[in-house]
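hiii, so i know i said id send this last week but things got crazy w the move. better late than never?? heres the sequnce for the chain we talked about at the cafe, plus the structure i predicted for it. fair warning i was half asleep when i ran it
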Amino acid sequence: MSGSGHGGRDGDCLLDRRLRRIDTRSVRATVDRHTYAQLSTAEVAEPDAFAYWREMICATFVRLTADPIDGRPFSGLIEHVPVGEIEMSTVVAAGQHVRRTRTLIADDTEEFLLASIQIGGRGRGEQDGRAAALSAGEMAYYDSTRPYALHFDDPFQQLVVQVPKRALMLQNTRKLTARSLGAGTPGTAVSAFFRSLAQSTRAGGTGGAILVPHALGLLSAAASYAGQRAPAAPAIEAMARQRVFDFLHRNLADPTLNADTVARACHVSRRTLYRIVGEAGVAAQLRRMRIERARALLLSAPERPVNAVAAACGFNSESGFFRAFRAETGQTPVAYRRGYGTVGQ
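okay and structure toks below
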């Protein structure tokens, strides 16, 4: 959604008279850009929902005006997940129109690039004389230093990624904003990566911080594509890395995977491939990823036999699976499953 709200005109978030009945200070106090937060209009009575929503987005994003679709009931939810300098906010809400105006821009001191990743419903964004129509799986960029408008005629779901412009070292964003990036563009990889990163961080994962440089590289690569210019070397490397790991995740169940197969499928050299996966090589990376999937399957599907888990994770034999699992975790698959209170097979 990429923004914050006001009472339908420029000015302070408290312009709406209905906000006198709402403790707006508690909304802003709830959101620290460096910590997880979840906000919902369910906290207030329905007549106050949109007024409260304006405060929610004002606390989470940059400053914007916001207006509901006339005559329709409103509800909205924001889940804010920060990782380093990157802020990811999942927005689920009813239809609305938002604008970022010159007056509101003048009130802000920080400069952000925002990526709106459409998850459900449809949206439309306008900036720099262009309009981007977004369907599920597509994304577009907006620059907080210039006016833009966002339109959602019906309920929608978005993941908004907000990053300080200084972190991306972008000199000129005028050619990359409000351009829809979907199938066949880097937007597909960027969307998949950030949805996964937000989900894993929300679930309590602790590895997000080490992925920040990679995340910034992906954002830069897609921005370069949108701006129709050649991406810098780090951005190219980030896209190649994402391509490789996406391919590995999609094909873990194939026991014939090897370095040559991966390099050909991802259009990279073996040298680049080994730089991406590390000195231990493709086989070691695959083994770690397969064991990670196996651990998840052992717990989520306790009725599935261990040999079926092994096959689903790309192991040729149950004995090979047992050896690899013990080497990685210090336990057998059966002991691991039993340790979490399920019945071993």
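btw The chain is about 40% helix and 20% strand. thought thatd interest u
miss u guys!!
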